[in-house]
Amino acid sequence: MSETASPRIGFGAVWHRRLRPVEHEFRYPTYFLLLPLRSLRQQAWAPLNRNRWGWLSFHDRDHGNGGGDALAWFEQLLASEGITDADGEVWLQTFPRVLGYAFKPVSFWHAHRADGSLAAVLAEVNNTFGERHAYLLAGPGLAWGEPSCARKVFHVSPFCGVSGEYSFRFERQVTTEGWPAHTLARVDLHDAQGPLLQTSVAGTLATLTAATVRRAVFGMPFMTLGVILRIHWQAARLWIKRVPFFSKPPAPQNFVSR
Q: Where are the domains of the chain?
């Protein structure tokens, strides 16, 4: 991937399906950012309102330890975990702030090697209780289109216990020039009884420009506010269906699990 990669914006959908004890499924249109953070370190990108207010913006403090340089935090994390071959681009897939507001259920950090292969992926999860946890995926089995697993240790929904295992799978299509053209992140949850949840976020990517920002904001002006409202609406539907309720346990002591 070029050292001067351009930020992308994805237009697509979030999908969620619960299999037990009752079936429950929904799909919502959405958009998201795919940011080449090492390229942005070298050169700012005018249509991206970074760390300032805008119709659509990105703030470093919404990630990691809440500091002013999210990429520096991520690189320090990789070093502390012994991942030394992530010498290519770092792409962050995340929801933007819209009109200054964002809630980010999950963001995905893709750390590439110089040849474009994946050295590590970090799934950064936020719950509605103001807590954050990250699942680090790395090792020889990590590759586009291949599943990677992590034990669930973080409370997200009161309708799921903190048990079982996540299966992550990431897919990406590129243009003939090598630019990301379509991306899919699939996360499924399995417990002792088998598959429980199936989720994905996918979208077709375009260069982040003033025109694509207008398309996103005017097409879905309350997208990020809608995320939190829809979470509570779907929770109410599960409660009406009498899905068992789990109290929130303490957050994990370690910010990152691997």
A: 8-257
